[in-house]
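pasting for ref. prot 1 ->
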Amino acid sequence: MKKIIIITVGLLFTIYGTHAKELLLGDPVNMDLYQPLEEISKQLASYTNQQITLKGQITKVCKKKGCWADIKSGDEQIRIKVTDDVIVIPIYTVGREAYATGTLKSKVMSKEETINYLQHMADDAGETFAPANVKQGMTLYQLQAEAIRIF
């Protein structure tokens, strides 16, 4: 019985130790480009197509491929998108802080495109989605990241 407990405790330390370490994904994060998410959110359109670095707590990660994560700072939230199969954001990073460097992108979507996008995102996150709740199109802003530092 003691051996099982020791092995279990050892396994927990191994798992926790692996997840607790800083994680660098992609290129190095450029801290010279840091902008607070709260400030960027006030004028997203003026930062479109610019390289920036944002910081926030990871609140959600794509459960299928790790190809996106939502980060939140204060009351503001933005999606970090990475190139599929080039960078994979691990699901276990939810709750951790991260810096991400990339280009802020925007896309104006029709109502139909919005429904398709939100359905796809709900599927990726393993959530339900009610298309009837969408009344109009939206403008999607997300950071196309090449570098993420999770700590």
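and prot 2 ->
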Amino acid sequence: MKSRIWIIAIAVLVLAAGVSGYFIVKKKKDKRTEVTVEAAEVRRLVSTVSATGSVEPVTQVKVSAEIPGRIVQLNVKEGDRVEKGQFLVELDSQTYLAALESATSSLRSARGQKQKAEADLRRVRELVGKEMASQADLDAAQAAAELYAGQLDQAVAEEKRVRENLAKTRIASPMSGTVSRLNKELGELTLGSQFQEDVILVVADLSAMQVRAEVDENDIVGVKLGDSAKVEIDAYPDTSFHGVVAEISQSATEKSLQAEQQGKNFDVKVAITDTVRGIRPGMSSTVDIATAERDSALSVSLQCVAVRDKKAGKAVEIKEKEKPKSSRELAAQAKAGVADTSKTTARDEIEQGLFVKVADSVVWKPVRTGLSSDRHIEVTSGVNAGDSVVNGPYRVLARELTGGMKVKIKKPEEPKGKKK
């Protein structure tokens, strides 16, 4: 009995070893590369340009004092509704009242001097007619009359200027709207715009809002007036609003990214056409501007498109062309032994394409691409609708895969903790 049991046990072990060896050998022989595929489909594509910015009113006015002074009356607070011409702020007027009294006194004095000079001129003319005064006396009287006439004009202008300054101590609203920002309080000093802009408050029309976004210089060429846009405001999560490009800046604004690199953006104003309750100036926002669209475009996922060397068919590394160096710089590099003699693949030596799965292998198909959205890209030639196009894994698609390589479909991974 014992010997029989031993014989059975040995037979079972041999059988198990044989089965295990069979599967190991089979696995080693299966050298096919695992890939994932998708079908090329006809779908609607919308090319968008994304940019960040902040919400601001379409129409707003910064209210500043034209003259310096201390605020003695402030009739509004932030959030108040005001009408055009409504009284807002009053500055201390005592200094300007005193200046007006002085200017009025000077005006009266100049007017009296002019009247006296004109009377003297008339008397001298009579005396000259009676040959009791000389021509020199007449010329002097005429010059005096002209002088006092000029002084009177100057006094009139000064009195008008001082009176206008006194009127500027009372500031009215230039438009109907809402006080969106209040920078000054009662008793504070205002510098007056003759030195620099010193904003007291801002009146804005909050019924019409827009987003001032900064679009990168590489994307601005595709943006046009009237383009529709999707507006997302951080304060309203999971909600988007419709907008329209209303204004495009013609000059760039530079923002330093690094010491040796400058980033250039263009301001684009997107008017929000939807009504947004509770929206306020300064809210952070993101806009997606639709620059082009296709209703029926044969397309694949963006990651499907790869680049290969036209001759070797291998993955390549693309480097942007550097700024040409001067002969002096090249000579200095050669002398120092740091000249870069490496050769990178030129753009005219590469092609873009897709790997299409046919049976148990892949075929490299050079393609031409067109419009791209945030997830898909249009393929204008090279593949047909329904073709199985390789879309991953990224490392395999970008570096390892070549035309004619044997492949198999990668099985989806089961979620962790799932019982078989």
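The two ends are 40 Å apart (CA to CA).
Confidence is low (pLDDT under 50) at residues 256-260, 334-344.
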